[in-house]
Predict the 3D structure of the following.
Amino acid sequence: MAISEAQNIRLTRVGPDTPMGDLLRRYWHPIAAEAELLENPIKPVRLLAEDLILYRTSNGEYGLTEPHCPHRRAAFANGYVEPDGIRCSYHGWKFAPDGTCIEQPYEEMASGHTRFRAQICALTYRVEVKAGLVWAYLGPDPAPLIPTWEPFTFEHCFKQIVIHEVDCNWLQCQENSIDPLHFEWLHGNWTPGQNGHREAYSATHVRLGFEPWQYGLCYRRLHEGDDETSLNWRTQRLSMMPNLFAPLHFEWRVPIDDHRTLGIVWMFDRVPAEREPFAQDVIPCWHGRFHDDAGRPLTTHVLHQDVLTWTGQGRIADRTREHLGRSDEGVVMFRKQLEADLKAVAEGKDPSGLIRDPEQNKCIRYPHDMRDAYVKAPSIEALHQRLHRMRQLTPVRDNVFLVAGQPDDIRQQWEYAVALRDTPP
Ligand code: FES
Ligand SMILES: [Fe+2]
């Protein structure tokens, strides 16, 4: 059951004035880490095919503005960040985070009035910080709330953020979020498969389960020899609308434009009682490494294998030539939900998964209970056993099974937090 060319275009194009662009603009999207802006207060970003400048004022306020100054179009990327806004470095016009022009140095002196300045405004969008991430909203008012997913509220966790870019359309990345079978073939069997060791293939799946939940879809999977008490059956993986995978860590697939996606990973490890109280001033952020020094793709980590596969599907996968089977039930459900949401937005209604009630947003609980594992401190022994199991997911020894490139300083902080080293770095 392939889809039509028209539907493939409808589901994948994200620019302004496209149906999917309209739909995706109804949600908040993470576009950077707070830690990045603390290090460098101006970050050019491209989101939903719009070029923008994200900045942090020296008072700690965030702005997200059009990239060119309304005067004579100089780049705000080269601007000066001040306590109350960003100043264009060409002739000194200054703009507040809401786009208001708050200074026009020569003009005000020469004319003796501010009427000209009052006519000038830069195009800006909403921006907020939550969970160490900087979020943008490009849609109409009233904006919904940024979801407070349950792990955002967990204390005594070592949290870290990994950012990377993927050279393909967002949809094929997110379709992976509702594709349980790929764990066996793409991840479990990658190393033996590439090396001709078929005898080392991982346990095969015998059952997949898909169901809707309030914020998207979830799936379960059962391996040969396991029963419904197994962790992979009890702890559903969640595909949140429109572009988030959860729950044991988070992966957002944020459309940069039709052909590129910003991958944002948010991870957390509960520290043992011996490290409590544990808090981070700011959640550290690093950039994932996907190529070796010779430019060849790395394939050692789970996300390497995912990204190589997504980009291998083409810049925009040609869904008119697919042959979907039973394992693709979740993909079909996801596309149907997107079509329903496109229709809702076209009719002036909210799409699925939006949160507008602050009470509901105090903490969005998962459909299964993983709370105990994070609220209660694990013993050092249990924690190290779990970390050992995670490390075995990559053929190289690494603290982070998802992706390579963790800087040494963050690695050392993490090792201390999870009691793999005795003294702080
Ligand atoms: S171009 Fe920005 S102040 Fe002149
Ligand atoms: Fe994967």
